[in-house]
Design goal:
It is a single chain. This protein is of the alpha/beta class and 300 residues long. The chain is 39% helix and 14% strand. It folds into two domains: 32-165, 3-Layer(aba) Sandwich (Rossmann fold), CATH 3.40.50.1980; 178-298, Rossmann fold (3-Layer(aba) Sandwich), CATH 3.40.50.
Length: 300
């Protein structure tokens, strides 16, 4: 009996089985490496199933990509979509409760790059990805990073598709404005301080697309703290104010003489609208519509 065929059978079977084994391998099981906003290369070995998100815009991005069900806890400011309101709250995004995060046993923690908690979380053996968009281009990039961190199939396609929807929504808001509403000189106060949204911020970029002129120049940074006298000298024609706390709007000294205040062209956004306009993420089209409505209503 010729032994040659007997020796060859295992190799033939192996060649037939390799493609089958590859096809049964879990989708997205290859490790993913992402350079985060700290400049660190973060390796995410497996598709994360228990995610703690400690920045509202990242929470919203996970959900907009269709993966809200993977979230097990969020910071106390994350409140959209409604489903995340039922999740455990883990403190603020700057100073979250380390113990509360660790107790959830997350396999991925999404944080702001400005948080003080990253190293403490990593010291506990947790995988931490720090992302914090500040301009429109960052939003697009972060969507891609989040999609890859989630191990989505064709992650960049999913992120690009969502970005196109966001960008088209902002453009639609700009096109809805009547000509008389364009060219307004705007001051946007993000929070009391006053902290402003400058030209170099994502809010400033949206205002520019709406045809507005931001009185806070790019040289001051994205979100500078200003002396109230700066706004008096700038004398904006429209003032927009994020007032999440719903405290009474008290004018700073000298502001009564500003054109916007004198002519009652001040838009104060309550908690819901403030959350929308100050978050760089999937709800930027809604933010653009809110700001466009203010410009339209204050136009003379």
């Amino acid at each position: 009996m010729n032994p040659t065929p007997i020796r060859r059978i295992p190799w033939v079977l192996a060649l037939l089985l390799v493609p089958a084994l590859l096809m049964t391998r879990p989708a997205g099981a290859e490790p993913v490496q992402i350079t985060d906003d700290r400049g660190r290369v973060v390796t995410i070995a497996q598709p994360p199933q228990r995610i703690a998100s400690l920045l509202p815009s990242l929470t919203e991005s996970v959900c907009a990509l269709g993966e809200c069900h993977r979230l097990v806890g969020v910071d106390r400011f994350s409140n959209w979509p409604d489903a995340v309101r039922e999740l455990p709250q883990l403190g603020g995004y700057i100073d979250p409760s380390i113990e509360a995060v660790a107790a959830l046993r997350p396999d991925l923690v999404l944080v702001a790059s400005s948080t003080r908690a990253s190293e403490r979380l990593e010291a506990l053996g947790l995988t931490v990805l720090a992302l914090e968009p500040k301009v429109h281009a960052d939003v697009r990039r972060v969507l891609g990073d989040v999609a890859r961190a989630l191990h989505l199939p064709r992650p960049q396609d999913a992120a690009d598709r969502l970005w196109r929807e966001i960008d088209a929504g902002v453009q639609a808001a700009a096109q809805s404005l009547p000509p008389r509403a364009r060219g307004a000189r705007v001051y946007f106060e993000v929070s009391r301080g006053p902290y402003a949204a400058g030209t170099a911020s994502f809010i400033g970029e949206t205002l520019a697309r709406l045809g507005a002129e931001n009185v806070v120049g790019a040289e001051l940074g994205p979100f500078p703290r200003l002396n109230p006298e700066f706004v008096v000298r700038a004398n904006p024609g429209v003032i927009m104010v994020g007032n999440r706390s719903m405290q009474p709007m008290v004018m700073y000294p000298g502001w009564q003489g500003i054109a916007a205040v004198r002519d009652k062209r001040v838009c104060v956004f309550g908690p819901g609208e403030s959350d929308v306009v100050v978050r760089p993420g999937p709800r930027m089209p809604e933010a653009a519509r809110i700001m466009a409505r203010c410009l339209a209503e204050t136009a003379r």
